[in-house]
Amino acid sequence: MEIEEFVQLASGRGAGAAKAAERLVEFRERALQPIIDFLSDPWAVHGNLPGVLERILLNAPRDEVVRALSLDQDAVFEAAVQVIQEQGMEAWRNEIVERLCDRSESEVRRARIAEICGDMASPSIGPHLEAVFAQSQRIEREEDEPPRLTVECAVALAKLGDFRFGSPVIELLTHSFPPTREMAAEAAKILVGEGMIEILSRAIRDSSLEVRLQVVEALFLLGFPACVDALIEGLNGGDLEIGNNCRVRLNDILGTKFQDSPEGSRALIRYWSQSSSQFDECKRYRLGVASSVGEIIEVIDVSPHRSHEIGREILYITGRRLRVGSTYFRDQAQRLSSLFGVRGATYRWGHQVAPNLIFG
What we know:
Layout: H1 3-10, H2 14-27, H3 32-39, H4 49-58, H5 62-70, H6 74-87, H7 89-101, H8 107-119, H9 126-137, H10 148-159, H11 166-170, H12 178-187, H13 196-203, H14 209-222, H15 225-235, H16 240-254, H17 262-275, E1 285-286, E2 289-290, H18 293-302, H19 307-318, H20 329-337, E3 346-348, E4 351-353, H21 356-359
Antiparallel strand pairs: 1-2, 3-4
């Protein structure tokens, strides 16, 4: 059977497709061009092929990965990016900097490169991200073109511990184009900036459901008393889904168990009006106390069914991806509690955030 026939089979489903995919991996570099040619068809069903391409590129000569980065096909580009991310910044630093800073490259691809820069945790890339962030803010865009490069550079810099670039992105929550606000709301779970709680408080009533959902999570991750006030506004906003999410996150912050009912909402509001003076305005709270990772571990013990949600929370705080669902999940979280144990401190992606960056 010819390589092209295996490519066709691997694009399908089922056991036959999986076997064909494994056979293609055995062909190594000889299968690269047939796979790339197949992926050039915009109407083709990709099936297992992107994963096969990535596996082959992992062991292919460096030139093949560089070539894949330069090709037009998005699936081929993404496979090359995955290889670079797996092999690490030090091995690919020159190629990453070149493509990040190349103004002739598409903004979408430059943004994808910026995204992996934050995940690869190499501070040496920071000055390049900062320069691209400044340059991207000067790009003239159409009103309906989200500034993805600007956002991804700011997020990558925050993941590296540099939070100076959050405010311009958080201010995009006031933009007229919904996808731009949605992108900013997602980024607000990692970024910080002066005045962000006020902006998030207004955005909890945004016309876009996706913005409202992400804003609830951003307010929860901040966990300050002012965030409780904003979540109570969302609780009373008349949107059932957002109201329920606000109630869940208010219980998570305050350590309460108010039910999803009008009576439960009124009781929660009464509780906060009577208790709010006991909370320090500059500290993050979880389960009613100035929080550390330890309080998150308590949630694992009480609500093991929320492990995926808790895993995401730990990721945003510590930058560590835990093996959610494994028998060692709690043990992994327990080890982190000694590294991120300053009570009431705000952490983002493993870095402690000074309160003045949020409160001025």
